């Protein structure tokens, strides 16, 4: 409520307790507020040991609101909840009223209001004859298959057929494992050249 009135300066813990009329709480509760509750609250930021409200959109005036809505529109992010704007913009209703037709209101099914940037460069007039012709074509009794069949007869392909075709992955043949010659480990390699080969000696002869 303070933030919505324009009181955006941070408060000490004692000032918060004074405004909320909780000065009679104990020391343990104060310690819990300072060490856990306030510092872990996503809607509160600590500034030089004091505590300030942290809205989703921190807006100063109507110009900041219009820039935010314009940026959302350019990035294709759509609109912004009115309650989020009222939370972060002091005197929000006055600023919204001053912007007039530069913004558009849309009501969601859950009755929450969404604000959109009204990009007037996208506005154009459609010829009345074309509107009548468009509205005169009955499509209520036609399902998607009938519409697609009609388009094919007219030589028009549907969007489903214009996409990139999937290419089946090429299956590679596995190479047969090559038969490696078995190697036997030799011992006494350090005696190579010292021992004589007696394989040619005939038994009984020296």
Automatic annotation (TrEMBL):
<dbReference type="InterPro" id="IPR036388">
    <property type="entry name" value="WH-like_DNA-bd_sf"/>
</dbReference>
<dbReference type="InterPro" id="IPR016656">
    <property type="entry name" value="TFIIE-bsu"/>
</dbReference>
<dbReference type="Pfam" id="PF02186">
    <property type="entry name" value="TFIIE_beta"/>
</dbReference>
<dbReference type="GO" id="GO:0006367">
    <property type="term" value="P:transcription initiation at RNA polymerase II promoter"/>
</dbReference>
<keyword id="KW-0238">DNA-binding</keyword>
<dbReference type="GO" id="GO:0003677">
    <property type="term" value="F:DNA binding"/>
</dbReference>
<feature type="region of interest" description="Disordered">
    <location>
        <begin position="158"/>
        <end position="191"/>
    </location>
</feature>
<dbReference type="InterPro" id="IPR003166">
    <property type="entry name" value="TFIIE_bsu_DNA-bd"/>
</dbReference>
<protein>
    <submittedName>
        <fullName>General transcription factor IIE subunit 2</fullName>
    </submittedName>
</protein>
<keyword id="KW-0805">Transcription regulation</keyword>
<dbReference type="GO" id="GO:0001097">
    <property type="term" value="F:TFIIH-class transcription factor complex binding"/>
</dbReference>
<dbReference type="InterPro" id="IPR036390">
    <property type="entry name" value="WH_DNA-bd_sf"/>
</dbReference>
<feature type="domain" description="TFIIE beta">
    <location>
        <begin position="1"/>
        <end position="60"/>
    </location>
</feature>
<dbReference type="GO" id="GO:0005673">
    <property type="term" value="C:transcription factor TFIIE complex"/>
</dbReference>
<dbReference type="Pfam" id="PF18121">
    <property type="entry name" value="TFA2_Winged_2"/>
</dbReference>
<comment type="function">
    <text>Recruits TFIIH to the initiation complex and stimulates the RNA polymerase II C-terminal domain kinase and DNA-dependent ATPase activities of TFIIH. Both TFIIH and TFIIE are required for promoter clearance by RNA polymerase.</text>
</comment>
<keyword id="KW-0804">Transcription</keyword>
<keyword id="KW-0539">Nucleus</keyword>
<feature type="compositionally biased region" description="Basic residues">
    <location>
        <begin position="171"/>
        <end position="185"/>
    </location>
</feature>
<dbReference type="InterPro" id="IPR040501">
    <property type="entry name" value="TFA2_Winged_2"/>
</dbReference>
């Amino acid at each position: 409520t303070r933030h919505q009135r324009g009181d955006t300066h941070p408060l000490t813990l004692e000032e918060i307790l004074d405004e909320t009329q909780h000065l009679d709480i104990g020391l343990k509760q104060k310690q819990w507020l300072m060490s856990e509750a306030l510092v872990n609250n996503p809607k509160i930021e600590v500034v030089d040991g004091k505590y300030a409200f942290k809205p989703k959109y921190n807006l100063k005036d109507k110009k900041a609101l219009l820039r935010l809505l314009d940026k959302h529109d350019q990035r294709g992010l759509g609109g912004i909840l009115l309650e989020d704007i009222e939370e972060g913009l002091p005197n929000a209703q006055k600023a919204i009223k001053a912007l007039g037709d530069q913004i558009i209101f849309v009501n969601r099914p859950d009755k929450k209001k969404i604000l959109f940037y009204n990009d007037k460069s996208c506005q154009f007039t459609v010829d009345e004859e074309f509107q009548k012709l468009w509205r005169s074509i009955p499509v209520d009794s036609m399902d998607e298959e009938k519409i697609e069949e009609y388009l094919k007869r007219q030589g028009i392909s549907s969007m489903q057929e214009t996409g990139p075709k999937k290419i089946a992955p090429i299956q590679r043949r596995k190479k047969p494992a090559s038969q490696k010659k078995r190697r036997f480990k030799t011992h006494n390699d350090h005696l190579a050249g010292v021992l004589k080969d007696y394989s040619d000696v005939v038994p009984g002869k020296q």
